[in-house]
Amino acid sequence: MSAATFRTGHEVLVRAPVHRVWRTLTGDVGSWWSTVSRHGAVSASLEPYVGGRVVEENASRPWGTITGWCPAGHLEVRGRMDLPAGVSGLLEVELEETADGTWLHVLHQVAGPWETARWVRSTDSWRTMAEQVALLAEQSRGSLGLVPDVLQAGGHG
Predict the structure, then answer these.
(1) pLDDT tens-digit profile of 107-119?
(2) Quick one: pLDDT at residue 2?
């Protein structure tokens, strides 16, 4: 097995405003964490600031460290991510508000001695994560699919 860099990206249009997608992504980590856990953990905690840790339940070390944090739509995490020895990971999530909702862009990259077969499984996990975050954000109260925020706030549509 030789050292390599693998990169995967997924995009999903979420019919909810950026703040609801952000809340689902960062405030309700347990609702989607099982889709990316390599060891079957169903939850994780996230310390919401640059330098904060992402820690999977029952883990002896952090999954990663938050290196980018902007509630307007940017999350970046770097670290071991429970990957094999010698492999490091990068997770970048960008939210882009549009007239139709929010584009959720997920990028995951690993560098080091990594098997192609494992990467294929990992790619599927991040696609599932993006879809799960989208579904949960859309189902949360007031998503664009149900009642636009401007109407809930008493504004004019």
Answers:
(1) 999 888 877 767 6
(2) 60
Could you read off the pLDDT of 90-100 as tens digits, one per residue? 999 999 999 99
**Whether 13 contacts 103, CB under 8 Å:** yes
Q: Is CATH 3.30.530.20 the classification given to domain 3-149?
A: yes
- Stated pTM of the model: 0.82
Give residues with Cβ within 8 angstroms of 30, minimum separation 6.
42, 43, 44
What's the chain's Rg over C-alpha atoms? 16
2: number of Cβ within 10 Å:
6
Residue 1, classified by CB atoms within 10 Å of its CB into exposed (0-12), middle (13-18) or buried (19+), is exposed
Domain boundaries, the chain: 3-149
